[in-house]
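Q: what sequence does this backbone want?
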């Protein structure tokens, strides 16, 4: 829904999630995926087994995944 509202191709988006179903939704939508170790981690805590492209421990880690540097004012 968000990619359509922003007129972005799903392949140009990264879906970040703290539950297996988030990673499954990303895959079904044709989006890249990041599993996050923070948030409301569900019962299936094997993040590395979910099939996401990467697992991150902090929101800023997503910038590294995307090849970006954080802006530090």
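A:
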């Amino acid at each position: 829904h968000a990619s359509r509202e922003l007129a972005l191709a799903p392949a140009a988006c990264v879906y970040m999630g703290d539950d297996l179903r988030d990673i499954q939704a990303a895959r079904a939508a044709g989006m890249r995926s990041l599993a996050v170790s923070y948030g409301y981690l569900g019962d299936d805590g094997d993040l590395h087994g979910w099939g996401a492209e990467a697992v991150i421990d902090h929101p800023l880690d997503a910038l590294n995944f995307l090849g970006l540097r954080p802006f530090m004012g």
